[in-house]
Structures are given as C-alpha cells and as structure tokens.
Amino acid sequence: MAHAHVNFLGGSPLNRLSWLRSSQDFLNAIAALPQTRWVLFNAGSPLVGQRDAGPYLAYLSTKEVKPILGSKPFFGQGKEIGTYLQAGEVATHTEAARHLNSPVVFLGLHEDHSKTGALPSSDFADAQAAVKNIEGTAYFSLDVASLDKSSEELEAFLQSTETASNGVKLSFAEPRSVMNKLDLFTSGIFAEARSMVDWNERNKFCPGCGSPLYSMWGGWKLACSTLLPWAPKTNKKPCITADYYRKGLHNFTHPRSDPVVIMIAVDETGDRILLGRNKKFPGKFYSALAGFVEPGESFEDAVLREMWEEAGVKVWDVRYHSGQPWPYPASLMVGFYARADASAPIRVDLDNELEDAQWYDRSKILSIINHPDGTNLSPKTFNDEYDGKTAGTDLRSKPIDAPPFRVPPTTAIAGVLIRDWAEGKIGFDVDKKGKL
Asked: Are residues 132 and 165 in the same domain?
C-alpha cells in the first residue's frame, strides 16, 4: 500500500511560488511576459478551443486578455485607477492588492527543466531575483462572470483575440464534458484554476462586517475593504478581521479545499468489495462510497462513520491509497480501503443516500472494467447535478452485449480504487482475526 499514485487532476505541474504571491513587483512583471498564459472561465465553465479530436483547454496570452484585465498595475493598485500603492500604503493588508478590477489568480510557473539552472528555489528568494531568473511559462486564471458583461460582449472579446483570428473557434464549455480530453499536465492546471476562481467568485463580502472584499496575493487571499488605507473612518468598531494583521489567526476562510473520504470495503477473504449505487446515479452505475469529513473527525473516523451511515457496514483496518483534487467546486478526495464482514446485513435506510449496495467478487469486477462500455461515460451526463463523489454516466448503452452495470473510469479516484484492487495491486490477506 506504500506506493505513490498520481491521480488525474492531481500532480500539479506548476511551481506555485507561494512565497512571492505578496510581491506586486513580481506578479506585475511575470504577468507582462509574452509567454505567460491565461486560463479563462465563465461561471466555472472553461474556455476551450475546437479541433478535430474535440475540445481542448484554451490558453490565451496576456496581450489577448488585456481588454478584460483593466488598467495597469494589475497588482498593488492604489486608490485611483492607474496608480500604485504609495510607500506609506504598503502593509500586510494591502500586499499585491487588486481592488479596482475583478480578481485574477496566479497559478504558478511551469519550469523549463531542459535548461541548466532552471528555477532552483534559491534563485527565487526575492521578487527581483525571481524576475531575472524566469525560464518557464507562468499561468494565471480569471473568471469572466465577475466582469458583468453580456454574452454579446464576451463573444466580441473572444473574436478579438489572436487565437480566434488564427481560425480557432473559442467557446465556454461545461467543465465535465471536456475532462476526458485533458492530458495529465492540463488536468492539473485545470483543477487548480477552477477551484481558485470559484473560491474568489463565491466570496464577495466580509463575513465579519459585511463590507466588500478585495483580492490580494495573486488571488490567494481576500481582505476586508475597511482595511484599505483610504477607507472612510467611522465610529464603528473595527472589523474583526483586522485582528489578523495584529496577532493570532482570525481568517474566516482560506482558499477552499473540502476533504472527502472515498473508500472501498474489502471482505475478510480479500476477494470481494462493496460498491453502492447512489440515488442520483442513473441506471446501474456502482461506485465507491464517499462522504465529507465532518469537524472533529480524522480521515479514519470519517471512513468508519460513512460506511456505517451509507451501508450499515462496520469496517476496520483502514488503509490510505491516494488523493485526488476534484474541482467541483473544491473537493479533495482522499481514497481508502477498509476490511469488513461480508456476512453482516447491508442497510441503505440510515441516511437514505444509496439506492442499493452489493458485494462483488473479483471476476465480476474484472469483467466490467474490461468490457468496452464498462467504464464508458457520455459527456451529456456531466451536466447532471453531482456532489463530487464520482462522475455520473450516461447509461444509454448498446442493446446487445451491454454490461450488467458500470463503474467509474480511472479519471476518477473511485475507478482507480476499484481497478487497483481488481488487478491485484492492493494486497489483502485473508483476515482470520475479524472485526475489531
């Protein structure tokens, strides 16, 4: 079990340079580079280009997106449009502030390791050194939904880009419909970008006092507008978030990442696993069980609770497999296996989330994953409401030789957990001890 598995949407290819997010000089300099690329969304739907093989995630240059970025400076904005923060205005609550325009997110830098001296961390101890030693491609992200532009205005903007003038058809697509077109490199960028723009779009007002929030640190931090140096002075008590800049940790929210345990119960022989069919899933689609981690729980606690609540099954010997970011909008799927007694009755009437749950032996699962349609997903069903546990599937299958049920593909961690067990990559001996 002590193997390193990189799941689809994981394995971020970027050096996020988090210690430089507070530098307006670095962010402005790297955003202006001709090789810098932007990933755009519209209310979470990514901008894609079309080619014969299907849609692909589109990258635009800073020059192309400049019409929607607003006036320079992009970061470290002063009170008035086109001005920088003055020396006396630069403080912990204004670092790389972007309060005059819609938030943008600095995703990181893809390092060119083919060249000698390619971005060692020692070269990036400060912003000036970083700018001088950049040999790679920086990535930023922006959601145009915050621009309050009409669909006609957005279409005109897309048509004005050099990419469109080169014959590429640009459009915003439903995010899950393009997932199977992403390679590992692009999927990692997509996952980070979508989660971060979603977090910025969802948080508009200070939870401490209700005042508007503004962006800092290249989209990785939000601050209350009452903290701006030129904010009107009132007789009201200062916003509680101001305490963050004086002592202790008083953040109401960090960039969102919701932990979800996703797990498969293995019986005492090691040759059967428990899969469930969620009531939201169409047809005969079975997957791993999953649920959000609750406050005051460890991952192992959540596995035990969720298995009992969803299927009435007591488990033990919980073992970690791997994790997967799932940007719908910002889940972190944490995969586990656990042992269970297959002779105990299954119950799906506790939290009423499952339509059914069944034990399946290895030969049955292998026949499903080796079937041409056993893990087949149609883009249509990615439009369905989905809570982040695994992708939905279109079960309109061929009338002849259809699989008895389907399981997730390996682009979802549930599919990885199922396949790794079925192919014998996960070692479980016969459990003679039984339940603890």
From this structure: yes
